[in-house]
Amino acid sequence: MIQYIKSTENRIIKLVKHLSKKGERDKNSLFIAEGVRLVREAIADGKPEFILTTSPCKDFVGTQYIVSDELFEKLSDTRTPQGIMALCPMPRWDEGILCSARLVLVCENISDPGNLGTMLRTAEAAGADAVILAGNTVDLYNPKTVRSTMGSVFRVPVFVGDTYVDKLGEYGFTLAVTCLDGAIDLYKAETVGKKVALAIGSEAHGISKALENKADLKIKIPMWGKVESLNAAIAASVCLYECRRRLESQE
Question: pTM for this structure?
Answer without folding.
Answer: 0.92
